[in-house]
Write a structure and sequence with these properties.
Elements (H helix, E strand, L loop, with lengths): L9 H23 L4 H17 L2 H4 L5 H23 L9
Length: about 100
């Protein structure tokens, strides 16, 4: 956990999102190598989703609206990857 002098934790979010982005890349590679959809879903949940949700009730209030939007965007991308793997179509961004 990284906390800045203004008690913000954007630096921590940067680290978590970077890790999740790496996981998303690995998931795309696994999908391209033929990983079954159910297994792809399990790997996504155990890596990307769990990384974002770990202790989230404790730190959620410290995030700015921009930080929350970044988290939401990564979750949408994760859902799109899973939806595309299942049906070949993408989820809609609820903000659009």
């Amino acid at each position: 956990m990284v906390i800045s002098s203004d008690l913000g934790i954007s630096a921590h979010l940067d680290q978590v999102l970077s890790s999740c982005a790496s996981s998303m890349y690995v998931l795309r590679v696994l999908r391209s190598h033929g990983l079954q959809n159910q297994m792809l879903h399990e790997v996504t949940k155990m890596t990307t989703i769990d990384s974002l949700m770990y202790a989230s009730p404790a730190w959620w209030g410290y995030f700015s609206a921009n930080d929350r939007a970044r988290i939401d965007q990564l979750l949408i991308e994760s859902l799109n990857a899973l939806a595309f793997a299942r049906s070949g179509s993408r989820c809609r961004d609820p903000g659009s």
